[in-house]
């Protein structure tokens, strides 16, 4: 029976140290961590690895429920997958475990709260962008591709596939740039 810790932050500039220390302090022999959004399970390779290797009697430990995900369905799916393997899920803050009958109810409610919190964050973000646009401060995201370079490569005779390979982007991005009015 192993205690396996999982730590997650959403962005590369966020720090995992507090979560990792807490999981070590709780006796987790194995700890996997990643820096990826919790909005969905896409791209969360470390969580997938943990779920794949859980054995009967193991315990998946996270510091807070939102570390497992910000979508109720995703959180409940993680819990279900762990239980299908005979393992349990424990959240440290607040302390909830699926070993007890009430654990499922509490985890479901907490999962709904995490999802609601994500919706609030998105709404505040939209409001902030609208305010910034209103005063002329918001200019949008940074362009990832040099449009003039795409056009120059095309003018030099390269096709969209070759341009995409040279610039490390998709052909669709190249097509869109080439179709833009100058």
How does the SSE layout of this entry go?
Layout: E1 3-9, H1 17-25, E2 30-35, H2 45-53, E3 59-62, H3 72-84, E4 88-91, E5 96-97, H4 101-134, H5 147-155, H6 160-167, H7 171-179
Helix pairs in contact: 3-4, 6-7
Description:
The chain is an alpha/beta fold and 182 residues long. It has helices at residues 17-25, 45-53, 72-84, 101-134, 147-155, 160-167, 171-179; strands at residues 3-9, 30-35, 59-62, 88-91, 96-97. It has two domains: 3-117, 3-Layer(aba) Sandwich (Rossmann fold); 147-179. Helix 3 (72-84) packs antiparallel against helix 4 and helix 6 (160-167) packs across helix 7. It is elongated and about 65 Å long. It comes from Methylobacterium trifolii. The active site is at residue 10. Residues 2-136 form the Resolvase/invertase-type recombinase catalytic domain. This is Transposon Tn3 resolvase.
Instruction: Identify the overall geometry.
Output: elongated
Q: Would you identify the CATH architecture of the largest domain?
A: 3-Layer(aba) Sandwich
CATH superfamily name of the largest domain?
Resolvase, N-terminal catalytic domain
CATH topology of the largest domain: Rossmann fold
Strand order of the largest sheet: 2-1-3-4-5
β content, as a range?
5-15%
Average pLDDT for all residues: 89
Radius of gyration: 22 Å
Task: Classify the helix fraction into a percent range.
Answer: 40-55%
Q: Work out the helix count.
A: 7
Poorly predicted spans: none
Kindly provide the name of the CATH class of the largest domain.
Alpha Beta
């Amino acid at each position: 029976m192993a205690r396996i810790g999982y730590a997650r932050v959403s962005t590369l500039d966020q720090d995992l140290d507090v979560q990792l220390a807490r999981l070590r302090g709780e006796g987790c022999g194995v700890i996997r961590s990643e820096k990826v959004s919790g909005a969905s399970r896409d791209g969360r390779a470390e969580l997938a690895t943990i779920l794949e290797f859980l054995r009967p009697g193991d315990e998946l430990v996270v510091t807070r429920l939102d570390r497992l995900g910000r979508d109720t369905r995703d959180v409940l799916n993680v819990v279900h997958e762990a239980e299908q393997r005979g393992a349990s899920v424990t959240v440290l803050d607040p302390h909830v475990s699926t070993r007890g009958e009430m654990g499922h109810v509490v985890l479901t409610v907490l999962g709904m709260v995490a999802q609601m919190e994500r919706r609030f964050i998105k709404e505040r973000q939209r409001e902030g962008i609208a305010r910034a646009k209103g005063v002329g401060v918001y200019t949008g995201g940074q362009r990832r591709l040099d449009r003039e370079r795409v056009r120059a490569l095309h003018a030099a005779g390269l096709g969209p596939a070759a341009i995409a390979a040279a610039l490390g982007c998709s052909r669709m991005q190249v097509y869109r740039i080439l179709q833009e009015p100058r």
